[in-house]
Structures are given as structure tokens and as C-alpha cells.
Write a structure and sequence with these properties.
By secondary structure, this protein is an all-alpha fold. It has three helices and no strands. Helix 2 runs antiparallel to helix 3.
């Protein structure tokens, strides 16, 4: 199976840039998820409950936004 995307440049330059940078966007989201997860999973005892809850809230919001936009960090092989 093959897929082909075509763009009318320069009119579709923004859409083209988004399409060719998809992997970079995924990497940013994945890195942010890992950062947020590690800050709760390995939270020091000295971390305040408020800060801990904030990390969890932000991670939940990240996944909510991804779900609303039908994107996932799961890579299909």
C-alpha cells in the first residue's frame, strides 16, 4: 500500500510543514509525557502535594487534548 500527499506550494506551505514534521511533533508530545510521568512516578518526598497534583493534572490534560484530536503516542507497526 502506498499513500501520497500533494501540496500546492507556496499556497499550502503551512500544511506541508505540518505534514513533514509529524514525527517531530510526536517526539515533543512523547517527551512531555515522559517528563510529566517521571515527575510523579519518581517524585521526591519533599515535593508538595500541590506540585504533584499539578503534574498529574497537566498530564491528564495532555491526554485529553490528544484524545479530542484523535492522536495517540502509540506507534502502529
Amino acid at each position: 500500500m502506498k499513500a501520497k500527499l500533494e501540496f500546492e506550494l507556496p499556497d499550502d506551505q503551512q500544511d506541508f510543514n505540518v505534514a513533514i514534521n509529524g514525527l517531530n511533533f510526536w517526539r515533543v508530545l512523547n517527551s512531555m509525557d515522559q517528563y510529566l510521568n517521571s515527575n510523579t512516578k519518581y517524585a521526591p518526598d519533599s515535593m508538595s502535594k500541590e506540585k504533584y497534583d499539578t503534574y498529574e493534572e497537566i498530564r491528564d490534560k495532555l491526554f485529553e487534548l490528544m484524545s479530542e484530536n484523535n492522536v495517540s503516542l502509540d506507534i502502529v507497526k
